[in-house]
Amino acid sequence: MAKFTQTVEVFQNYINGEWKDSTSGQVMDSVNPANKTETIGQLQSSTTEEVDEAIQSATEAKIGWRKTGAYQRGQLLASVANELEKNVDDIAETLTKEMGKTLPEAIGETQRGIAILRYYAAEGMRKEGEVIPASDKEALMFTKRTPLGVVGIITPWNFPVAIPIWKIAPALVYGNTVVFKPASESAVTAAKVVKCFEHAGLPKGVLNFITGKGSIVGEALINSKKLNGITFTGSESTGKRVAKAASANGIKYQLEMGGKNPVIVLDDADVQSAVQGILSGAFKSTGQKCTATSRVIVQEGIYEELKAALLAETKKITIGDGMNSSIWMGPCASESQLNTVLEYIQIGQEEGATLLYGGQRLTENEYAHGFYVEPAIFEQVTSTMRIAQEEIFGPVIALLKVKTVEEAIDIANDTEFGLSASLYTSNIGSALSFIDDIEAGLVRVNSESAGVELQAPFGGMKASSTGTREQGEAAKEFYTAIKTVLIRS
Ligand SMILES: NC(=O)C1=CN([C@@H]2O[C@H](COP(=O)(O)OP(=O)(O)OC[C@H]3O[C@@H](n4cnc5c(N)ncnc54)[C@H](OP(=O)(O)O)[C@@H]3O)[C@@H](O)[C@H]2O)C=CC1
Ligand SMILES: O=C(O)CCC(=O)C(=O)O
């Protein structure tokens, strides 16, 4: 019988306008979390010298790109959007196969990428400064935005299309050149996104793409003295390394890290609407969003009703390969992510919380080769427990019962994180208190904790971010510096 051999595509680095193999001669496999026997592609295991080469290429391109002008840079982003639109199906399928989220979610994310590109394409036509009255009436005084120069971009695996684009698009339109290092676990999808920039005709050196281990390629990038700025989304521990290196090198940095996002449900809430928001916020993308719901804080009068409705709906969730249209929740993105989730489910039980539902690893039949876990709901959780304090990044909810809205907000604020928070109520007074008192960068009323609008500022408080904001017009604050100009004739 003839042996079947799987052909695996190899993806290269993109440096100075050329796709190149790494001189290491080594590649890394990217596997399908729904079926670990399937390799989605191979990526270059790059060296620190290649990081220097990518930075050098971006440095050589920076003056030409700045002088290209904002309008023309925006037009190029519009062309990238068109390229991405032509490739939606392939990129979304790759995303699902590489990272595990369901195909409708992957299509939604890719379409979000197109919309982000179009938003920043239009930025190329918006004002880049303001005229301010000078004390000298003969003088003209105005501000003018100027790019930082070369920006390093390090992204996570959970949004391999949207996050790179919401960093690369504003970086480019405001005139910076880029060295982009994606997460290894979703770098095939990222490579396909970079090809859209290439096919749109981006000048060489403006966007450089380099893959390899975070501990080698990521470290070399964050420690480079030649960058002018660095933006990072991922874990708190890596974020702290980025901050330390950037401070030591005196460069501007921006970090988006974890969350422990609460949803508060008050006695006067619409239970069905709250349950739908909790399900979507906690379990879509298998809970692997920094904005995912992980704590559900419920007022005692509605607790039993909400718990029963939540359990009933959670039991209906279909788990499996995200390419299958009947599936609502895919696998965890990697074996290590699955192990983290299982570990926290164990920790929750050891801490004395009651596992009400789920939390079992699935290994039989169609689950045999994937990283599957059932959604888990805990109750009898107290705020000091690790499952109520630490980011799990998986489909796990902790239910906490409270007496009053004040107690609910105190518990919601009782973590080191402050990314997103949501309240379900029909009382405008409670909503207004929540908006004022909650420590979170994204504040939602009668709406789920996850979900980000590309035209609005995105970012957290406390340990969730550096306080800077991404997306919308807010991105301009990170990717540019202001020159204040005064002219006298
Ligand atoms: N959006 C968010 O807020 C995210 C939060 N997380 C949280 O982080 C946890 C761990 O996920 P993980 O993927 O390990 O997150 P990491 O922070 O390790 O990865 C994020 C990015 O940083 C890179 N990286 C890793 N180590 C270094 C380093 N020393 N210097 C520079 N860059 C580095 C990674 O590269 P490589 O992939 O090659 O290691 C990846 O591109 C999750 O369980 C979750 O809690 C994770 C992802 C997204
Ligand atoms: O909720 C979203 O759409 C974005 C979440 C996010 O930025 C993240 O998980 O890193």
Automatic annotation (TrEMBL):
Which SUPFAM superfamilies does the protein's record reference? ALDH-like
| Alphabetized GO MF terms | aldehyde dehydrogenase (NAD+) activity
The UniProt entry, under PANTHER family, shows: ALDEHYDE DEHYDROGENASE-RELATED
* Active site (UniProt): 256
**Which EC number applies?**
1.2.1.3
The family line of this record is: Belongs to the aldehyde dehydrogenase family.
Q: What is this protein called?
A: Aldehyde dehydrogenase
A single Pfam family it belongs to is Aldedh
- Ranges for the Aldehyde dehydrogenase domain? 19-485
Respond yes or no to whether keyword Oxidoreductase is given for this record. yes
Keywords in UniProt for this one? Oxidoreductase
Q: From which organism does this entry originate? A: Shouchella clausii (strain KSM-K16)
